[in-house]
Structure formats: C-alpha cells, structure tokens
Known about the structure:
2 copies of one chain form a homodimer.
Chain A: E1 11-16, H1 27-35, E2 38-41, H2 47-50, E3 57-60, H3 72-84, E4 88-93, H4 103-112, E5 117-120, H5 125-132, E6 145-150, H6 154-163, E7 170-174, H7 180-189, E8 197-202, E9 210-215, E10 233-237, H8 240-248, H9 259-270
Parallel strand pairs in A: 1-4, 1-5, 2-3, 2-4, 6-7
Antiparallel strand pairs in A: 7-10, 8-9, 8-10
Helix pairs in contact in A: 6-7
Amino acid sequence: VTPPAAGRKGRVWLVGAGPGSPDLLTLRAARLLARADLVLYDALVDPAVLALAGRAQRFCVGKRGGRPSMDQETIHRLMIRGALRGKRVVRLKGGDPFVFGRGGEEALALAAAGIPCEVVPGVSSALAAPALAGIPVTHRGVASSFVVVSGHAESAYRSVLGSLGPHSATVVVLMGLGSRAALAAFLLGRGWSPSTPVAVLLAAGSEDAHAGRATLATLGTWAPPDALADAPGTIVIGEVVALGEAITAAGRPGGSVPLVAAVEGGRHAGSR
Amino acid sequence: VTPPAAGRKGRVWLVGAGPGSPDLLTLRAARLLARADLVLYDALVDPAVLALAGRAQRFCVGKRGGRPSMDQETIHRLMIRGALRGKRVVRLKGGDPFVFGRGGEEALALAAAGIPCEVVPGVSSALAAPALAGIPVTHRGVASSFVVVSGHAESAYRSVLGSLGPHSATVVVLMGLGSRAALAAFLLGRGWSPSTPVAVLLAAGSEDAHAGRATLATLGTWAPPDALADAPGTIVIGEVVALGEAITAAGRPGGSVPLVAAVEGGRHAGSR
C-alpha cells in the first residue's frame, strides 16, 4: 500500500457497486477503486469488483441477514479517520449508494465532520434485477410508474402499499424475501388480484442468477432453490412480469443468465 | 467500418447509457459499444459516449420535445434488419433501457422477429439525478420507499399519485418539467403540504447540471435558467430533498457539479 501523499486532503466517495456482476460497475467507480487508498465494502460486493482496488486496504463493513456486523457509527468513524489521514476512501455499497442501505446517513456524518464527499450513482438492483430478467418496470399501456419499497418489515411498506391503488403501479420489493408471505397477504388484503404475476429474482447480475415465478396467491409458499436460500432477492409484482416471458422467448435478455430456462425453473418452483 | 463476419448471427443489445456523463456508463456498455457494428442512439446520449463506438455505423433515432422523430416501427425495423445481416447492434438508450422510453416494446419486437436480445441495465436518471445532488431517495425515518412516475401527462401519473397517501413516499418525476404546475396542483389537491420541499434537477450528470429548489407551493412558477430551458429534468418531491442541503454542506457530493453553488442558485431561481 502506497502511503498517502503528505498533507494531501482526504475525501470520501460513496460508490455504487451495481447489482453484482463486475461489468455492471460504472467507469467512474472502476477508476475510483483503482486509485483508492482505503475501501470499506458491503458484504454483497463481488470479489472481482474488489480486485479492481489493487492498491487499497480493504475492509468488509457489511451486514448479512441476522449475523453480527459493524455498527453504523464505526463505519462513520472509519471513513472519517481515513479521510483525516489524507486517504482516498471509497465506501463501496451494493447497487446504488442512496437506495436503502444508509447512504444518506453516511453522507450526513461526513458532512457533519467537514469531510468532502462525492456520491457516485450505481446500477440499482431495483431496476437491474427485473431488466436482466427481461422485465420492463414500465411499459406503455401496462404500467406508467413503479414503486420501490423495502420489504424487511411491514412498517417499511405499510404507508405506501397501504394507500396505493391496487394495480396502479409496478411494485419492486428489495429485502423482502423473508417477509414474502406477509407482503402477499398485505396486497391481497388491499384488493390486488390473486393472479397478479410475481417474479422473484435471486442473485441478479451474478452467475448464479435465478428468476422464479409466482403469483400473489402463491408467493407465500414459493421457495428458492436450496443453493440460493441465502441469496439476495428482488421481488417484482405486476402485469409487466408477464411481459418478461414474451421478451425472454427469443433468447437471453440478461447477459449472463439463461433466462428462458431460469423462468421455466422458477415456474416449476412456483408450483411447489 | 469492418463488414460483419460472413454467416455470423447478429444480435441486439438494449443498452442503458446512464444519465449523461460518459463515466457513468457501465463497463459492459463500454465494451459492447467498442465491438458494435451498428449503434442506434437516443437524442440525449452524450457524444463522448458515442465516441466509444469507434467502428460502428451510428444513427440518431431519438425524439426530443415536440420535434419530429423516427417512428417506433422504423426503429424496430432498423434493429431487426441489422441483426439479420449479422451485425452486432447496440440500441443505446438514455438512463436505463427499461425505465420509460419503450425499451419493453423494442424487446418484444425483437422477440417476435426471433432476434436474440440482451438487456444491459444502466444508471437511471430517476436515481442518479437525486444522488448527484446529494439527495437520498430513501432515508431511515424520512422515506422508506420511492415512486417513479412519468410526468408527461396526467393520465400517466393519475392512478398512482391519485391513490398514494400524501407524504408516504419520495416521488420522482421524469419528463415532468413541462407539466410541473399541473403536477404540483394535483398533489396539493390530494393533501400534500404546500411546504413540501422539491428539487428540480436539470441536465443531471452533465457539466451543465443545475439543481433548483422549490416547494410544492412554488413549483408551478419555478423557472429554469434560460440556458437550460430545453434540458431534461428530474423532479424530486419529499422531505428527503431537505437532507440534500445538509449533505451538500461539506462539499461536492456529485462529482462534476459544484452543488452548494447549484443549490443556492436553484434557491434563487425558485424564489423568482
């Protein structure tokens, strides 16, 4: 590791790592990683992305499921200390740095400490997971808007999904795999049709990507393949999901994923 | 231009160009552009991005405001013809290919013609414009979800914004600059507070980026700087906009944009 230049002012970049696959990183993110002195990364960041930060000290500060993790204050302290020592600090976050994941809190902590900070947007899983599965979140005549919610607890989605008219937008749920039964029951209770198509997109953007299919009626009993039981997942709810089938009919819309097979596999899984 | 290899099967990639700045392109998009035989691009794509497609024929197929443009059927025909001739065709779209902009229709047309197609997600302006202005679309205790709508006509946002509970999510509006007065009136009529903070983000990701500030009460009379009267814009509505001010206090969160100045300039513009 090259020591930072004496007297150089440090700064922090809050960088989106995209949905997983290293080639969905932005050019700006790749350049910043190559120049970084210190990289503080989330647990879900791909090792091939980290490998781009060849000269940096690298620390995992992420949390995963229920496992113990570094607390948020410690992450703030590490960023601030690095910058005060003149380091180029990259805080590398899965997807986009400002979609869930406390990016705003980290930016506020840096602002309060007087540390210059730049935000580098990334490809969010909320959009990339459906796109890689051939599902357009908007489509003329089908959906002219979409809603992105965190599914980790009902308190996170109650106010928006509780008021939203049934079928008035595509609904994208991040961090909602564990509460998929409650989520489906919630929407059914709000008047959504049981036959509403649902896609469950696991490990999107990675080589293990899997696109499962269900409906609101079957989402609660849908189960992921065993190998992907701990994979991150994005749930997409709405008629646009059915378009994904027509779109994937001709080939592989998603780059690294054999999607026709994946959708068929998902349909099988959905019928269990 | 190198002729495509004889007998090679052509294919089409629907590629997101990101919000403007070439370094917010993904590595995958840059690699595909470098190898492309034919690039069909939207009007808003940055010339520096196109320059990456050094060996390709390049055609602008985009529309801009009310000006005449190629019809959608013609775009489909050009993509299909190119692929049938064995070419590597990149359909380059602003932002993300599946967020508005008829990416789904293009993918369906390719599927119907039996042309292999891959979708390459991009950084969407819906998220990048606020992030570059230091505005987190979600923030613990402030907003746990966000809604993205097209603002070009009331029919596009009526069902979702008409049902959504006031202040229950951050609202991001694309293509809504021209209807900002109607949009503000619509939300005020639904019970949103007149003091709800609003950011109007023009030409996000480019060197001309400008972050204007308003409230729902003043959005209708807010006016862009003359030089940016035709720039694309993203409107962000909700309390998270106020966080952007605190976050930008320490420096330049948005890479290429001097945001403290931009926010102050916007506040000035908002007070006209």
